[in-house]
Amino acid sequence: xxxxxxxxxxxxxxxxxxxxxxxxxxxxxxxxxxxxxxxxxxxxxxxxxxxxxxxxxxxxxxxxxxxxxxxxxxxxxxxxxxxxxxxxxxxxxxxxxxxxxxxxxxxxxxxxxxxxxxxxxxxxxxxxxxxxxxxxxxxxxxxxxxxxxxxxxxxxxxxxxxxxxxxxxxxxxxxxxxxxxxxxxxxxxxxxxxxxxxxxxxxxxxxxxxxxxxxxxxxxxxxxxxxxxxxxxxxxxxxxxxxxxxxxxxxxxxxxxxxxxxxxxxxxxxxxxxxxxxxxxxxxxxxxxxxx
Length: 292
Fold this sequence. Notes:
The chain has helices at 2-7, 11-19, 21-43, 49-71, 125-134, 138-148, 200-217, 239-256, 269-274, 279-289; strands at 77-81, 88-93, 102-108, 155-156, 165-166, 172-177, 180-190, 196-197, 223-226, 262-267. It is an alpha/beta fold. The chain folds into 2 domains: 2-71, no CATH class; 77-289, 3-Layer(aba) Sandwich (Leucine Aminopeptidase, subunit E, domain 1). Helix 7 (200-217) runs parallel beside helix 8 (239-256) and helix 8 crosses helix 10. The longest helix has 23 residues, at 21-43. The model has no long low-confidence stretch (mean pLDDT 87).
């Protein structure tokens, strides 16, 4: 509900709701139907166009606008099924942790978890994972990460501010809590200034390895993931294009091997509002750009 009210206050919503080609087409189509009704009413002497033409036109315009707006309400989720395939991509405005499925969380190549020193922000997805599912205790998360990564190759990097074991981009560690699986995927490097840095090449590599990992280890179910890299990864890339990039990567992987029937990309409500993300446009964008 909060996203709904925030959306209708944005210029992007009104531009798409009233001034897009589809909205204008609907407006004139409704005007035509209403005017036909007026002609019929005039023919049967129910309404006289020549007597009330000015006020009648205003009423027709208002009714047409109300109809168009009723069909262009802000959306909180859109879904696009890949043609001739058994999987779909859904984009949802909401809380990543409240959506059923196998949850993906991006992390650094050192899989740092320390919140006490400020290395990991409590408001980040990793911080929320620790707070909501591990009572803020990161020791159990570290234990599960170590077990999950025990067969993975790593190098030692003494320049990293937290953990010194550095794993290749795309390495995945699984942790579980409350009958829910979380997959931490390395898609950034923790710099000496304690800021995570990533780029599009790293994200593409991380996604490619992530799908392979999920295909071999994860349960076959819905995959839930955030817009990787656009937050603390500091990748200067538009949200709408990042959605398409992630969706295309999933589509390519799912076309080669069956590991999930649905990818759910979750966008935080504050990000959707701040960056004027319009799900009407996202749905059209996916329909035009995705290919399998």
